[in-house]
Design brief:
The structure is a homodimer of 451-residue chains. Helix content of chain A is 61%, strand content 6%. Chain A contains 20 helices and 5 strands. Chain A has helices at 3-10, 22-31, 34-43, 46-53, 61-65, 70-79, 82-92, 97-102, 105-115, 122-125, 139-149, 174-179, 204-213, 234-252, 267-294, 296-301, 309-332, 341-373, 382-413, 423-446; strands at residues 131-134, 158-162, 168-173, 218-222, 228-233. In chain A, strand 1, helix 11 and strand 2 form a beta-alpha-beta unit. In chain A, helix 2 runs antiparallel to helix 3 (34-43), helix 13 (204-213) packs across helix 14 (234-252) and helix 19 (382-413) runs antiparallel to helix 20 (423-446). Chain A is elongated. Chains A and B meet through helix 1, helix 11, helix 12, helix 13 and helix 14 of A and helix 1, helix 11, helix 12, helix 13 and helix 14 of B.
Chain lengths: 451, 451
């Protein structure tokens, strides 16, 4: 329950709270057993039940609607916003068929065409319930039209002027309409540029970016011939952004994105979402055992080298994880393009060398200090051991920074989401190479003394 | 330049593009040398220059304004939205003083009071340019008032009814106003509940959550006595969310959040942002070297144990990173509260055991397979080595899942941002303990044979 949040923010100044917010009812219904929630929903006044069902965060809606009589569901679905109704009915699968069959043909067509678009595209996010009017209308006619249709439209703050073939001509805002001369043509209020539009196939990240860039309340979705199909509203974009970010964080942590909140995800499903990546990483990381086996002789001769393996390898993974997180966001925000990979590489190379150098100095100091303080004896060649550790750190941190920054580019180039470049993925990539770098440097520096 | 994006989306159907978008001008100005951008801005028509300056993504604005004559800056600042003007002048530091001094006293007071709030609070995000009117007004009076003030208000779609002491009484929407009977009192349009409000100290995450939860276009900011201070609009929240995500991703990757886009961040600043955390992690990870030194005798006797160190430790780090990313988001979305820590622990414990068991089986199979195929000789006690590896994996993955899921709770409890629980931080935490778990299990299982 997120009630605490609102209560927390306002508690000091609102001792007696009036009324109840739709968002709170959603929370309450989702905490009830589905059968009780269905009965509660059945007895609510229509306006409240529809308001609750229209909330995208009401994830239990399909399950609860399936428990209500079809006649009641029809009543509610008919009053819901069409994009949300399409999402809910799509999630009901086969159970939606008797409901779809009983809808009016017009609404059924609208909803089935909305269901056809994937949920994370502009088509899947849009509603057809927007205000559109002929481009010939006057300001007064447009305002009168808004008054008539207001109740059934998701937003009336953006008005879309269309020609006689329903092609989008211009977008105007209600704030300009109410301040304009009622007798003048509405189209005069459109600014001297084409309306910002998006195609129904566009990914939700592109939709979010356009709405954010141009401070829109609604973005019209048009087909190839510029026919107006619907609009995506800013509140849907906010929800999509939050969902997108949750998925990206989970991916970056090396988990397949969860479909439901953490505590509602079943144990089996939770294990399945995590075991996949964990096993893939484990199998790849097995290469480290192979690399170590390859250097078994050196390990036998100089056990002192093994003491620094976790330290050196983790530094490579950490620097890689830093570079990856920076590049994933820079790509997502469009601050860096695919073609910029070499500019990034040219920055990461010196950055990695300097960062590795800093850690190298600290590492060498540690060996020297422990040796002099008598905390540990690294043997007669302790200076050479220290130099090996320092040189390996420079090599591995540089490699980590380069590999971590290039991986998101590579994934994007191959058509994957750059956000799939998880921290564990990068660490694994760097670990295997890191071991080879460490032992190769050790062979060069310690050959003839320890090795 | 993000122009490609828009061009890409619409190219097919818009061969001859009319006009130019403000967001594109911002991009162009930011790519120019500051002196050229200043001269371009100086010669733009006021309406365009102000439109460009009002964009929060125009990060070079303070630098460019500092190059213009004060008289021109005054002209522009006076027309800018007051929240953005406050942000820009705050970023100009001392160079803003002559400008502030030359503003009208009213505007100067507004801007200095806005500058006083930290940028990531409701107070720092709000604008005072909202439509407020006496709670006694009729619908017709309210619409007439909106017509008069429209040009100078950030949004007119939410109207705030206040009493004679400027205390917020109700929020009504323009869409309800234009469909209502002009003679009726405006307050009749308010729904039967208190308006959603936020205090100026509230964090931007709370602001975003309230706006998203209640599908608001504007959220009123009120003080402890419920006086209306200003509003935060949905477009500012979209920008804040994207900025917040970028910072969180960078923190999760183990980098201090960058102030500027990746390619615009200077090399020195980039290294400073990364070296801090990298050094802290390196110093903590040094404990692994100490742990290994403690087990030096065992390492000498059974070099075969070292072969699996990277494999086992990385699995602990990976499972920890998975758990952390899940809990960070669950906490951010309010799906899990601080008091739920034990419910999470009770889920992570069995999850970790099962995940560790899966990896343990794969690990034991690997040792058996290599031994039988003659790829490597793990010695006469290879079964015991395999069992040690499997048992260590169960222990370490369980510990990783538990530690990774509890760390965000601990950080939140201590008043830190749970998003600071970076993947490298968790990996380091798990590495040191992981080594101790591994060698302890080895001592138990291999004592009398290898050890």
């Amino acid at each position: 329950m997120e009630n605490d949040l609102i209560a927390g923010v306002n508690a000091s100044r609102r001792p007696a709270r009036r009324g109840i917010y739709l968002a709170d009812i959603v929370d309450m219904l989702q905490e009830m057993p589905p059968a009780r929630a269905a009965s509660a929903l059945a007895h609510m006044p229509d306006i409240r039940a529809v308001g609750v069902l229209d909330r995208p965060e009401f994830e239990a809606a399909p399950e609860i609607l399936a428990l209500l009589p079809v006649s009641r569901v029809i009543q509610l679905v008919t009053q819901m916003s069409d994009d949300r109704a399409a999402d809910v009915l799509a999630a009901m699968g086969e159970r939606a068929e008797p409901i779809l069959a009983a809808l009016t043909p017009g609404l059924r067509n609208t909803i089935t065409s909305l269901i056809a678009w994937p949920a994370d595209t502009a088509g899947g996010m849009m509603t057809t319930e927007c205000v559109s009017i002929s481009a010939d209308a006057t300001v007064a006619q447009t305002i009168e039209h808004i008054r008539t249709v207001e109740r059934t439209r998701e937003t009336v703050y953006s008005v879309f002027l269309v020609d006689d073939k329903n092609k989008l001509v211009a977008t105007i805002s209600l704030r300009r309409l109410i301040t304009a001369d009622p007798a003048s043509p509405a189209i005069d209020l459109a600014r001297d540029r084409d309306p910002i539009t998006v195609s129904p196939e566009a990914d939700r990240e592109i939709v979010a970016d356009l709405i954010r860039r141009h401070d829109l309340l609604a973005l019209p979705v048009v087909d190839d011939e510029h026919h107006l199909l619907g609009i995506v509203t800013v509140d849907d974009v906010l929800d999509a952004l939050v969902e997108e970010y949750t998925e990206d964080t989970q991916k970056f942590g090396g988990v397949e994105a969860l479909d439901r909140p953490y505590l509602d995800t079943g144990m089996i499903s939770m294990i399945r979402k995590r075991a996949g990546w964990l096993s893939v990483l484990f199998l790849s990381e097995m290469l480290t055992a192979s690399a170590m086996q390859h250097f078994e002789m050196e390990l036998q001769k100089a056990v002192v080298l093994t003491l620094f393996i976790p330290l050196i390898m983790s530094s490579g993974g950490n620097s890689g994880s830093q570079a990856t997180s920076l590049i994933i966001r820079a790509l997502a925000l469009g601050q860096v393009k695919l073609g910029d990979w070499w500019r990034v590489a040219l920055r990461e190379l010196p950055t990695g060398i300097v960062l590795g150098g800093i850690l190298g100095i600290v590492g060498f100091a540690r060996v020297t200090l422990w040796q002099h303080l008598g905390l540990f004896d690294y043997g007669p060649h302790w200076q050479l051991v220290g130099i090996t550790v320092a040189a390996a750190l420079i090599g591995i941190v540089t490699f980590g920074s380069l590999a971590g920054s290039m991986l998101p580019f590579l994934l994007q180039r191959l058509g994957f989401d750059p956000a799939s470049a998880s921290a564990p993925f990068v660490a694994t990539l760097v670990d295997v190479t890191g071991l080879v770098i460490y032992f190769t440097i050790a062979l060069v520096i310690l050959s003839g003394t320890l090795l």
